[in-house]
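>> received
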Amino acid sequence: MTNLKDKVAIITGAGQGVGKGIAIALAKAGATIVVSGRTLTKVQQTIKEIESFGGKGIALECEVTNQDHIENCVKKTVSTFSSIDILINNAQIVPLGELIDITDEAFNQAWLSGPLATHRFMKLCYPYLKKSQGSVVNLGTGAAIRPDPKGFGAYTAVKEAIRSLTRAAAVEWGKDGIRVNTIIPLANSPGMDMWEDMFPEEAEAFKETIPLGRIGDCEEDIGEAVVALVGPQCKYITGATLTLDGGHAFVR
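>> returned
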């Protein structure tokens, strides 16, 4: 098991789903966690779960479309824990629908919460990541690498912008000892659970396209992979996109 004791991690959108799974996995590996999200009660619940097994951290309300919130999150982290070693950019407003139906407002919210928030967090955390020779993990989507992204065009556009930022940061910041990677997860989440409940036959057919035969667990399959990725075992991996999706056939 990777030991992340004395490491400080910020995770955005960590009140549920993949972000929460990553936060819990990092905490179990010993990291101190800054759980941020736009709904304070949700991130507080994540902290309660972390504290229940002896982990530690703080919950911060952070609406990633708001630059003041982002700045406050970074400042509060540093003032409380003195460092930032790991940054996980997970939060994202998702614009779904065919391109003709996507409004400017929806696209703008997706841009603000995705690429722009990711860029802002990375820039603000850069001095501390440089000092600690830390690691950044950004979130992509499998919809962007499948042959048929119908209904996902705006979403894939902002997510691919994040992958471009990831690669550029990996190249530009490698000299500083900072590693920057993207993960593309496929995992159970509140949204996925709702879809399975509403469309059980479609969900079952979808699972059949996954060679490993199941949808991943947010903590065990995604979070623990992130633990390894930010740990010393993967110290030579940067600028990469890691698909954590059970081999999902539709994105190959």
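>> The radius of gyration is 17 Å.
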